[in-house]
Design goal:
two-stranded antiparallel ribbon, about 375 residues, mainly alpha, 17 helices
Length: about 375
C-alpha cells in the first residue's frame, strides 16, 4: 500500500483542484468575461499562497488523526471551507453592514448578483475598514515576532523582531492607525462615482470590530493550544509542540476534537483570504469560486504532504504571502476613501508572493551546492 502511494505522481494529487478550477474558469468567463477569470485566478493564487503554512499544519495534525476523521476532514471539511467560510462569511459581512436580513442577503447574492454587488459597493467603506485593519493585524503580528529566526526583507524584519520585545507594537500601531483615520475622516466620500455622506462611526467601529475579531481568534486558538507549560524555543518549535499536545491528548485521539481544532485553524487562516478578496473583487460568485479553488489546492497539498511525509522547503513563501497581506491591508484602508485600479491591487497581491517563491527556489539550489 505504501509503495502505491509513493508511485503516485505529484500532479495526480491535484486532480480535484484542476477539476474545480477548470469549472470555475468556465463559470467566471461566462459570468464576467476575462476580468472575472483574472480576478478569480488571482484569488486562487492568493488563497493558496496565504494558506501554504496552513497546509503544513494541516498535514501535521492530519497524520495523527484516525483514518475515518481524516476522510471526514477532506469531505465535510471541504464543504465547510468552500461553501461555509468562502460563501456564507461574505454574506454575513453584508448582513452586518446593511438592513437586509440574512435570508434576503443570501437570496440576493444568488439570484441578483448585480444588485448584490451594488449593495456591497454602498457599504464598501465599512467592509474596507473592517477588512483592512484585520489584515493589518495579521501582517503586524507576523512582522513583530521576536521568535522569528528567518528573515526575508532583513532590513525591515530584523529590526521589527528586535523592537517586538519592547511591547505589543501591533496593537499600538493599529490603534494609532484608527486614531489618525478617525481624525482625518471626511464627512463625505466617493462611492461608485457618487458622493455619499457618512458618519465617522461607520469607519471607526468596523475597524475596532476587526481588531476584536483578530484578538478573539488568537485567544480561542491560545486556549486550545495551551498545555500549561512554558516555552523558550523558536516559534516553529513552539507551534509544533502546541499542535502535538492537542493531537496527542485523550480527547483528540477520539478524532472529533482534532477535527474541530483543525477546522478552527483552517477558518482562522481563511479570514485573511476572504477579507482580502474584497480588495480584488466585490462579486460574491467570483470570491467563492476563486477562493474555493484555492481551498481545493490547499487540501490536495495537505494530502500530498501526509502521504509523502514531507513539508515544503520554500522558506520565504510565507513571508511573501504576509507582505502581500500587508500591501492588501494598506490598499483596503486607502479604498475607504478612493478607488484603486484592479491591476494595481492584483499586482500588490501577486508580486511579493512570486518574488518570495523565486528567492526560495534560488536559496534551495544554493544550499544543495553547499552540501
Amino acid at each position: 500500500m505504501t509503495e502505491v502511494i509513493k508511485q503516485k505522481s505529484t500532479l495526480s494529487y491535484f486532480n480535484t483542484f484542476f477539476l474545480f478550477f477548470g469549472v470555475s474558469v468556465i463559470i467566471e468567463l461566462f459570468y464576467m468575461g476575462i476580468l472575472g477569470v483574472i480576478q478569480g485566478t488571482t484569488l486562487t493564487i492568493l488563497e493558496l499562497s496565504l494558506s501554504f503554512d496552513n497546509a503544513v499544519i494541516n498535514a501535521l495534525i492530519l497524520a495523527n488523526m484516525p483514518p475515518i476523521w481524516r476522510k471526514r476532514f477532506l469531505t465535510w471539511g471541504m464543504l465547510i471551507a468552500v461553501f461555509g467560510v468562502r460563501l456564507v462569511f461574505p454574506i454575513l459581512i453584508v448582513f452586518a453592514t446593511t438592513d437586509l436580513s440574512l435570508l434576503e442577503s443570501f437570496t440576493l447574492a444568488i439570484n441578483n448578483p448585480a444588485e448584490y454587488e451594488k449593495i456591497i459597493t454602498a457599504s464598501h467603506h465599512i467592509v474596507m475598514a473592517f477588512g483592512g485593519i484585520f489584515l493589518l493585524m495579521i501582517f503586524l503580528s507576523f512582522l513583530f515576532n521576536e521568535n522569528k529566526d528567518v528573515h526575508w526583507i532583513a532590513i525591515v524584519e530584523k529590526y521589527a523582531s528586535r523592537w517586538s520585545s519592547v511591547g505589543d507594537l501591533k496593537i499600538l500601531i493599529a490603534i494609532l492607525t484608527i486614531s489618525i483615520i478617525g481624525f482625518y475622516t471626511p464627512s463625505e466620500i466617493l462611492v461608485a462615482d457618487e458622493i455619499k455622506k457618512i458618519d465617522k462611526g461607520e469607519i471607526i467601529l468596523p475597524m475596532v470590530y476587526g481588531i476584536l475579531l483578530f484578538l478573539s481568534i488568537e485567544f480561542l486558538r491560545g486556549i486550545l493550544e495551551d498545555d500549561g507549560s512554558k516555552h523558550e524555543s523558536n516559534s516553529m518549535e513552539i507551534e509544533r509542540e502546541k499542535i502535538e499536545n492537542v493531537v496527542n491528548s485523550k480527547l483528540a485521539k477520539g478524532g472529533f476534537a482534532s477535527f474541530v481544532y483543525l477546522e478552527l485553524i483552517d477558518m482562522s487562516f481563511s479570514f485573511d483570504g476572504v477579507l482580502g478578496a474584497f480588495a480584488v473583487s466585490q462579486n460574491i460568485i467570483i470570491i467563492m469560486l476563486g477562493l474555493g479553488a484555492g481551498a481545493f489546492a490547499v487540501r490536495n497539498l495537505t494530502i500530498l504532504m501526509v502521504d509523502r511525509g514531507t513539508v515544503s522547503e520554500y522558506k520565504y513563501l510565507e513571508h511573501g504571502a504576509m507582505w502581500s497581506v500587508g500591501l492588501l491591508a494598506i490598499s483596503m484602508i486607502i479604498q475607504i476613501f478612493m478607488h484603486l485600479p484592479h491591476g494595481l491591487i492584483i499586482a500588490l497581491a501577486i508580486i511579493p508572493i512570486a518574488i518570495a517563491f523565486i528567492h526560495s527556489v534560488r536559496e534551495n539550489k544554493l544550499d544543495k551546492y553547499k552540501i
